Amino acid sequence: MNGQDPYWVVLFESTSAALMAEKRLKKAAIPHKVIPVPRQISSDCGVCIRFAAGVRGDVESALTSGRIPFQEIRPL
Amino acid sequence: MARTLGCDVTVEETDRGTRIGITGKNRVESADAPPPAAGPVVVVIPGNTMGRGDEDLGKILIRSFFHTVNEGISRPDVIILFNTGVLLAAEGSDVLEDLRALEGKGTRILVCGTCLDFLKMKENLAAGTVSNMYAIAETIFSAGRLINL
Question: Whole-model pTM?
Answer without folding.
Answer: 0.74
